[in-house]
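Backbone-to-sequence.
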């Protein structure tokens, strides 16, 4: 009797084991996912990211473009696009994050801004066990590449590859259209106090070049040089392009109207471009680039 009972119990456990084994085999395996970030580090996750923290407005846009917007659990100030990003909890600004709040949101992937976030905070985040994927697009192709890599880490490859290709194709079409455009000398103002511009190595500088613009400060060594009004007067650009403190604020252009000797002022070639369209390395850079090219076309027509 005892032997029969033990045998029955043994068969029961064996059946349960087979059932559990069959269930395990029927479930999708959580495979490790890896991608190379913009510091040339391989970042690997044990499974696709499901809780993402984006530590710059540009990073937020790139994650959404990659099709992983629903996985974003933390952003920073001014992460206003797409509109639904405004409802995601903020963990401070890109220059100073609230690490306690960030940890409480339990991200399994943090998107860091290589030159924009404080290095010591990113190092602390990594020390706390949160993987950091650094981004810093410096070329048009880097924008597409960032979208594709983020999509790989979030297991949203189809949507990410589609967005990346749309950007890649759009920029290529602009490059072809303006390949033989007549040069226009340009000053682009990226900030007002202190007065700041960009050189030819900056992504915005590359937009100017694509549109047939000649950046009057393109050869300066710093990526974002500080200059003065006198330097702009000496360069005498044919066009001045600027953003402002907000998407509709044109005050920076008003400043230059006092210098009536400037060619850009005499010809009324003072152009406003919403900063979020040109100062974030995201798919909306395509829209900003089209605006840049249109403004320079307008300047050519006023010769």
């Amino acid at each position: 009797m005892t032997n029969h009972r033990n045998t029955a119990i043994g068969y029961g456990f064996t059946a349960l084991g087979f059932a559990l084994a069959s269930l395990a085999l029927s479930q999708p395996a959580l495979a490790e996912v890896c991608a190379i970030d913009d510091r040339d580090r391989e970042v690997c996750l044990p499974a696709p990211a499901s809780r993402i923290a984006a530590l710059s407005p540009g990073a937020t846009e790139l994650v959404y473009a990659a099709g992983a917007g629903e996985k974003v659990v933390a952003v920073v100030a001014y992460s206003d696009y797409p509109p639904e990003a405004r409802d995601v909890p903020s963990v401070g600004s890109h220059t100073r994050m609230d690490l306690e709040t960030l940890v409480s949101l339990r991200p399994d992937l943090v998107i860091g801004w290589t030159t924009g976030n404080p290095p010591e905070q990113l190092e602390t985040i990594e020390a706390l066990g949160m993987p950091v994927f650094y981004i810093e697009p410096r070329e048009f192709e880097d924008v597409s590449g960032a979208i594709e890599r983020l999509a790989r880490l979030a297991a949203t490859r189809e949507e990410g590859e589609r967005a990346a290709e749309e950007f890649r194709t759009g920029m290529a079409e602009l490059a072809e259209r303006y390949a033989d455009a007549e040069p226009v000398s340009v000053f682009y103002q990226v900030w007002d106090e202190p007065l700041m511009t960009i050189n030819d190595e900056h992504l915005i500088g590359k937009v100017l070049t694509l549109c047939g613009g000649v950046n009057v400060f393109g050869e300066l060594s710093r990526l974002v040089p500080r200059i003065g009004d006198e330097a702009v007067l000496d360069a005498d650009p044919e066009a001045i392009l600027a953003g402002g403190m907000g998407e509709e604020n044109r005050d920076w252009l008003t400043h230059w109207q006092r210098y009536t000797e400037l060619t850009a002022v005499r010809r009324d070639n003072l152009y406003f471009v919403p900063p979020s369209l040109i100062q974030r390395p995201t798919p909306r850079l395509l829209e900003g680039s089209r605006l840049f090219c249109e403004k320079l076309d307008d300047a050519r027509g006023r010769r």
